[in-house]
Design a protein that fits this description.
The protein is of the alpha/beta class. It has 3 helices and 4 strands. The protein has helices spanning 10-21, 33-40, 51-61, and strands spanning 2-6, 25-29, 64-67, 79-82. A 4-stranded parallel beta sheet has the order 3-2-1-4. Strand 1, helix 1 and strand 2 (25-29) form a beta-alpha-beta unit. The structure holds nicotinamide-adenine-dinucleotide.
Length: 102
């Protein structure tokens, strides 16, 4: 499958590494350019045992890439996972009413 993952933090980075290691073609998106650059350089943006190796192998094989913008890149994707942070309400609770801008 061709899989898109939005958000390359703790959840998204592990997701892209594991999904690509299973043979899927994965593209990750994040608004943070340093995380996108890390993935494209074959490095994990987070510290997680074993993830550096998975991401390095996937990036080298062409199974994994990352970008800051999704325009024109989703048409060929079979599924997209949204792994961005949950917005907070003024009282500190999770705000699931806020719209996500991708
Ligand atoms: N980390 C956990 O153990 C855990 C457990 C259960 C649920 N969750 C949920 O999973 C989600 C992700 O958690 P996390 O720990 O990976 O968060 P994180 O803060 O580590 O990563 C979120 C990433 O989303 C990116 N992002 C924000 N807005 C974006 C946008 N519009 N487009 C693309 N990228 C965007 C951020 O730059 C960041 O890199 C949250 O909703 C969290 O509540 C996390």
């Amino acid at each position: 499958m061709r899989i898109a993952v939005f958000g390359l933090g703790y959840v998204g980075s592990v997701a892209v590494g594991c999904l690509a290691s299973q043979g899927h073609s994965v593209i990750g998106f994040d608004i943070d350019e340093t995380k996108v650059a890390a993935i494209n350089a074959g490095n994990s943006p987070i510290i997680e045992p074993g993830l550096d190796r998975l991401i390095a192998e996937a990036a080298r094989s062409g199974k994994l890439s990352a970008a800051t913008g999704a325009e024109g890149k989703l048409d060929s994707c079979d599924i997209a996972f949204v792994c961005v942070g949950t917005p907070s309400a003024d009282d500190g609770q999770g705000n699931t009413q806020e719209r996500m801008i991708l």
